[in-house]
Amino acid sequence: MLNTDNTVALVVDIQERLLPVLHESGDFVANSVKLLTGLRALDVPVLITEQYPKGLGVTAADVKTAAGDAPVFEKTRFSAYTDEVAAAIKAHHAENIVLLGCETHICVLQTVLALQLWGLNVYLPQECVASRTPANKKNGLRQCLAAGAVVSNIESVLFQLLRDAKHPAFKTISKLIV
Predict the structure, then answer these.
(1) Isochorismatase-like domain spans which residues (predicted)?
(2) What is the value of pTM for the model shown?
(3) By CB distance 3.0 to 4.6 Å, which of 19, 112, 142, 148 could disulfide with 25?
(4) Going by C-beta distance under 8 Å and a sequence separation of 6 or more, which residues neighbour residue 101?
(5) What dihedral do alpha carbons 159, 165, 168, 169 form, nearest 10°?
């Protein structure tokens, strides 16, 4: 079960040079920022990966700002579950990963498969993953679901972590959702 003590967010490759080719990239970035803002209000640790930043650029500025001082891990493999990321997840004693990023049918899917292999529960807010085409996103989400990931949404994830209207972050989270 999701809770703030056993959950880490992993941002996969939301990079400057990828955004122009992604379907509905503006909404994708805005939703990712909303989710990250809520996760940070709940003190959920955030990790970021960048696929070959020399070629694809760095993490989009709005996403990087929303993620705060999250560590950034460079990679060339498609799965974001590198040895360095695995060590960071383990250091946080995480059982659950809230996964967001692109592309749904490539890097996100391969990350889901790797995380599942190592016994981690994966939650994918559907508004916070993207691909170049809607068909690829839909197909990627279906494959992630078939692999055992929970395909969810921003509100469900944040309110599962929040658990109670008496939580100190309730007002912050409520304002994000409106």
Answers:
(1) 8-155
(2) 0.97
(3) 19
(4) 10, 11, 12, 13, 14, 32, 49, 80, 107, 108, 111, 128, 129, 130
(5) 30
Report the percent of the chain where pLDDT is more than 90. Answer: 98
Instruction: Specify the 3-state DSSP secondary structure of 11.
Output: strand
pLDDT(10) > 80: yes
- 159 within 8 A of 174, measured Cβ to Cβ: no
Residue 85: strand, helix, or coil: helix
Domains for the chain: give ranges and CATH numbers.
7-177 (3.40.50.850)
The tens digit of pLDDT for each residue in 135-161 reads 999 999 999 999 999 999 999 999 999
pLDDT at 177 > cutoff 90: no
Type of residue numbered 128: C
Neighbours of 169 (CB within 10 A): 18
